[in-house]
């Protein structure tokens, strides 16, 4: 599988880094790994947000851990779309 020019293993590596950084609440690392215009959806599309700052704020306010997505899209080596 290829996503935005990356192989499946490269995508998995980036995703694993994001999940680790989120678990550690490492905001600086997340800024590096997540695209500024990040599109994030969860709960079957019931929650859908755009923008890295908005998503990270929502996750913090709702004390919601970042769960593994069903699908991701990369742009420039950063996660651009996250469908959970």
Mean pLDDT: 87
- Strand residue percentage: 25-35%
Structural class: alpha+beta
Model regions low in confidence, pLDDT < 50 over at least 5 residues:
1-5
Q: What is the highest CATH level, the class?
A: Alpha Beta
List the total number of helices. Answer: 3
Q: Summarize the main sheet.
A: 4 strands, mixed
Order of helices and strands: EEHHEEHEE
Biggest sheet: strand arrangement: 4-3-6-5
Distance between the ends: 18 Å
Determine the CATH topology.
Answer: Nuclear Transport Factor 2, Chain: A
Describe the global form: globular
Radius of gyration: 12 Å
Key terms:
39% helix; 3 helices; Nuclear Transport Factor 2, Chain: A; four-stranded mixed sheet; 84 residues; alpha+beta; disordered N terminus
Overview of the structural elements:
The protein is α+β, with helices and mostly antiparallel strands and 84 residues long. The chain has one domain: Nuclear Transport Factor 2, Chain: A. It is built from three helices and six strands. The strands form two sheets. The chain has a four-stranded mixed beta sheet. The chain has a two-stranded antiparallel sheet with strand order 1-2. A hairpin with a 2-residue loop joins strand 5 (71-75) and strand 6. Helix 1 runs antiparallel to helix 2 (27-33). The longest helix has 16 residues, at 8-23. The two termini are 18 Å apart. Residues 1-5 have low confidence and may be disordered.
Explain briefly what this protein structure is.
This protein has three helices and six strands.
């Amino acid at each position: 599988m290829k996503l935005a020019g990356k192989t499946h293993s490269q995508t998995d590596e980036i995703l694993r880094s994001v999940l680790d950084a989120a678990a550690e609440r490492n905001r600086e690392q997340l800024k590096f790994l997540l695209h500024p215009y990040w599109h994030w959806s969860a709960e079957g599309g019931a929650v859908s947000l755009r923008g890295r700052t908005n998503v990270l704020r929502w996750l913090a306010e709702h004390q919601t851990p970042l769960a593994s997505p069903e699908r991701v899209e990369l742009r420039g080596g950063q996660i651009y779309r996250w469908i959970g």
